[in-house]
């Protein structure tokens, strides 16, 4: 089990380093991420390195049996770099070249940046590749920076040439005859800079794909310099709608998937969500929770103290899903600088604090865990696709309430609440091992992926598709002749009109209804409401299970081959969505509400109690309030 966090000793006088390692030992810390933002210290003048301080840090850590996850500091170039190479500073969509003074102010397409980043990686690999403390390489920090400069424009055009081959193909894919955008020369194409009115959705989507590939190339360049040292190389994935990174693709290029997780809503549920995503991206390979906040959670711009026990419980949610440990940002809270109020494992109050006590207690617990080979056999998957998410952020959609992440989170929450640990899967993956697949608002789908889903149902699977799915192809062009074009046949329906809803509307059970089911007091037959969205669904083979008050089908079911394809044409509340899952045959939780039970192939069971009461009968001993247990139960 890896345990530790980002360690920034360059922010502290050297005598503090000795306190640091003593406290790290007290807290059973065994891995620290060093050097993430150290470029200006490591290369104070272009081409002149100062490794003396880092030598002493790494030697001190090695002498104390603490391993190092050594970062390349390329997320924050030093002031001399920005002055010498102003063309490598980020340019925003509205043409503003940003100045030095924060972090992440670089352009991954700028040749001077690429050269400087490779030179730094080479220097670090040469100096520390055989250092006894070195356990892992941490390339960069949270790739995700956008830039719209001329370097980017050139690289984007090259990428477009490779993707589309010819301008004719690009013009067709981008529907450039709309608003006279037809290109007759590659040089006419720009990154999607600020426009007068709505921008071209296909261009926006291709630009995100390009940024993901461009940043990945940047990562791969550094990785290939570091890999000959024989030490695993990774980078920490950051999550958010603004991040132009396709983690499915990136996961294939890292030696272990590493994620940063900063929940901003219900942390219990969001931790499970982040960990299920990371586990799925890793596809059976190792992964690690690289960063989380120690003593606070962030909510609406506020930093709220985590209640006692939460720090360990959230870490355990990740470990229960296969994380090889729990890491934090950061070891010691900074006394100055832009993030001086971000939390630390050693907060400003020092070790004599609740946070440090909880950190030490968790360290002891993790040090005492016995090894096991994590592996979860999920029977249910949720489809997760960045391209669909990005496309659903296009301008000009028929309602501002259509929100991919909200839809996905509701599906995950519903499974989490009923004790099901799902995988996430890409629509093109082999999904034959699952019994049920949830497809929340997957706006964009390729014909190939649509065929994949069709085969899944044909062979006996249950598919539960939610509104605004399968409407466009990979170029954001609408599949014609009735929505949802790519899945119409499989779902046995055809839709000709959409109506956004500003108020919830009642839904009614109809036709051959499934038996009433109870979910938090709501029955299928009563109180079902539709929200934000509705569709004019016509039956073409499917049966209506629930209707709008007009009698138009709202939820349908289609027997197809050996399986069943459900369609939900509106947004339900959580109880309604849970009722739909029950109607579709998903089991309900056997554990009491608020208790999470995660079973691994090798019989290891993690039980995590999110309630304030002791829970009996799940683990060999009662689960303490807010606590957890790990035990072996091969039979259940
Ligand atoms: C992370 C980032 C860290 C630090 C942290 C603050 O996203 O990687 O460097 O900024 O947030 O919570």
Automatic annotation (TrEMBL):
It catalyses: Hydrolysis of terminal non-reducing beta-D-galactose residues in beta-D-galactosides. It holds the Pfam family Glyco_hydro_42M. Residues 378-583 form the Beta-galactosidase trimerisation domain. CDD domains: A4_beta-galactosidase_middle_domain. It comes from the Bacteria. InterPro entries: Beta_galactosidase_Trimer, Class_I_gatase-like, GH, Glyco_hydro_42, Glyco_hydro_42_N. Gene3D superfamilies: 3.40.50.880, Glycosidases. GO terms for biological process: carbohydrate metabolic process. Residues 6-367 form the Glycoside hydrolase family 42 N-terminal domain. Substrate binds at residues 103, 141. SUPFAM superfamilies: (Trans)glycosidases, Class I glutamine amidotransferase-like. Belongs to the glycosyl hydrolase 42 family. This is Beta-galactosidase. It comes from Acrocarpospora macrocephala.
């Amino acid at each position: 089990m890896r345990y530790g966090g980002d360690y920034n000793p360059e922010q502290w006088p050297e005598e503090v380093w000795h306190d640091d390692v003593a406290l790290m030992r007290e807290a059973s810390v065994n891995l620290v991420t060093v050097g993430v933002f150290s470029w200006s210290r490591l290369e104070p003048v272009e081409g002149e390195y100062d490794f003396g301080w880092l030598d002493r840090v790494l030697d001190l850590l090695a002498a104390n049996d603490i391993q190092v996850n050594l970062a390349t500091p390329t997320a924050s170039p030093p002031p001399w770099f920005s002055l010498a190479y102003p063309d490598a500073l980020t340019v925003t969509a509205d043409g503003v070249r940003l100045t030095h003074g924060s972090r992440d102010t670089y352009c991954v397409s700028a040749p001077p940046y690429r050269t400087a980043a490779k030179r730094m990686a080479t220097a670090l690999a040469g100096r520390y590749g055989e250092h006894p403390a070195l356990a892992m390489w941490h390339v960069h920090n949270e790739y995700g920076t956008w830039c719209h400069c001329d370097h980017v424009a050139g690289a984007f055009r090259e990428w477009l040439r490779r993707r589309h081959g010819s301008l004719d193909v690009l013009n067709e894919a981008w529907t450039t005859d709309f608003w006279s955008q037809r290109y007759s020369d590659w040089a006419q194409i720009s990154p999607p800079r600020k426009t007068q009115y709505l921008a071209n959705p296909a261009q926006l989507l291709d630009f995100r794909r390009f940024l993901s590939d461009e940043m990945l190339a940047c990562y791969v360049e550094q990785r290939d310099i570091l890999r000959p040292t024989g030490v695993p190389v990774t980078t920490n994935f950051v999550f958010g709608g603004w991040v132009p990174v396709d983690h499915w693709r990136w996961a294939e290029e890292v030696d272990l998937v590493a994620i940063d997780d900063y929940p901003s809503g219900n942390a219990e549920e969001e931790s499970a969500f982040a960990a299920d995503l990371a586990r799925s991206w890793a596809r059976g390979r190792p992964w690690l929770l690289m960063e989380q906040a120690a003593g606070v959670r962030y909510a609406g711009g506020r930093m709220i103290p985590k209640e006692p026990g939460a720090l360990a419980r959230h870490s355990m949610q990740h470990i229960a899903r296969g994380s090889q440990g729990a890491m934090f940002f950061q070891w010691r809270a900074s006394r100055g600088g832009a993030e001086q109020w971000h939390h630390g494992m050693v907060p400003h109050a020092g070790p004599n604090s609740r946070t440090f006590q909880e950190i030490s207690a968790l360290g002891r617990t993790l040090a005492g865990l016995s090894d096991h080979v994590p592996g979860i056999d999920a029977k249910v998957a949720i489809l997760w696709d960045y391209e669909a998410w990005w496309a659903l952020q296009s301008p000009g959609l028929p309602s501002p309430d259509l929100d991919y992440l909200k839809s996905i989170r509701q599906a995950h929450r519903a499974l989490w609440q009923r004790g099901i640990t799902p995988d996430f899967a890409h629509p093109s993956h082999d999904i034959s091992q699952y019994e049920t697949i949830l497809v929340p608002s997957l706006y964009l789908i390729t014909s190939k992926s649509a065929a994949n889903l069709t085969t899944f149902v044909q062979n006996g699977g249950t598919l539960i598709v939610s509104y605004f799915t399968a409407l466009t192809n990979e170029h954001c062009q609408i599949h014609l002749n009735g929505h949802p074009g790519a899945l119409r046949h499989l779902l046995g329906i055809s839709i000709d009109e959409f109506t956004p809803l500003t108020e919830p509307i009642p839904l009614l059970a109809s036709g051959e209804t499934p038996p009433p089911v109870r979910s938090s007091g709501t029955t299928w037959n009563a109180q079902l409401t539709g929200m934000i969205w509705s569709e004019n669904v016509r039956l073409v083979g499917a049966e209506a299970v629930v209707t709008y008050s007009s009698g138009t089908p709202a939820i349908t079911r289609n027997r197809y081959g050996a399986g069943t394809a459900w369609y939900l044409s509106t947004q339900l509340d959580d109880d309604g969505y849970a009722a739909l899952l029950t109607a579709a045959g998903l089991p309900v939780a056997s554990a009491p509400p608020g208790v999470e039970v995660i079973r691994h192939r090798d019989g290891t069971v993690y039980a995590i109690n999110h309630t304030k009461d002791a829970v009996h009968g799940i683990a060999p001993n009662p689960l303490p309030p807010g606590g957890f247990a790990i035990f072996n139960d091969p039979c259940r």
